[in-house]
Amino acid sequence: MPHIIFKGIDMEDVKRVDKLIVKEISNIVNCPVDHFTVEWTPTIFISQGVENTGGYPFVTVNWFKRSREQRDEVAKLITGQILDLGYTDVCVYFHELEPSAYYENGIHY
Q1: How do beta strands 45-47 and 50-52 pair?
Q2: Which of these, 89, 108, 87, 86, lies nearest to 99 by C-alpha position?
Q3: CATH fold label, 3-108
Q4: Residue ranges of the domains in the chain?
Q5: Contact (CB, 8 A) for 27 and 56
Q6: What is the rounded CA–CA span in Å between residue 109 and residue 97?
Q7: Sequence-ordered list of residues with C-beta below 8 angstroms from that of 18, at least 6 positions apart, any chain
Q8: CA-CA distance, 58 to 54, in Å (whole number)?
Q9: 103: buried, middle or exposed (CB in 10 Å: 19+, 13-18, 0-12)?
Q10: What's the CA gap between 31 and 27, in Å, rounded?
Q11: pLDDT digits over 10-20, tens only?
Q12: By C-alpha distance, which of 57, 47, 50, 51 is closest to 84?
């Protein structure tokens, strides 16, 4: 684990960056690549009654607690990769999971 969820970005753009992002985060947090999941969630933003399907990427990283330095490095990595795709704004949010509340196949960490 970590679980990385992309919203407000084209699925094809996620496919362009997911391999590099996972590889680099794996190095930053010393976690095997096969422990990661990447999810793309289609999103519709509504502003003043008008629908907009994208253009403001929002990336959530669900993981066990890491250091501030690691969070900073991962946020910069994700932000840089998405900005390189031509987006102008990126929001990265870290959700820290409690290992004893995380279950895989009925067994907590």
Answers
A1: antiparallel
A2: 108
A3: Macrophage Migration Inhibitory Factor (3.30.429)
A4: 3-108
A5: no
A6: 11
A7: 4, 38
A8: 10
A9: exposed
A10: 7
A11: 999 999 999 99
A12: 57
| Tokens 């094809």 sit on residue | 12
State the chain's mean pLDDT as an integer.
94
pLDDT category of residue 7 using cuts at 50, 70 and 90: very high
Report field, pTM of the whole predicted structure over 0.85 = yes
- Give me the amino acid identity at 30: N
Q: DSSP letter at 98? A: P
Burial group, residue 97, by CB count within 10 angstroms (0-12, 13-18, 19+): middle
Three-state secondary structure call for residue 5: strand
Q: Which residues contact 32 (CB under 8 A, 6 or more apart)?
A: 26
The β-bridge relationship of strands 3-7 and 37-41 is parallel
Which amino acid is located at 86 in the chain?
G
Token reading at 92: 């990265």
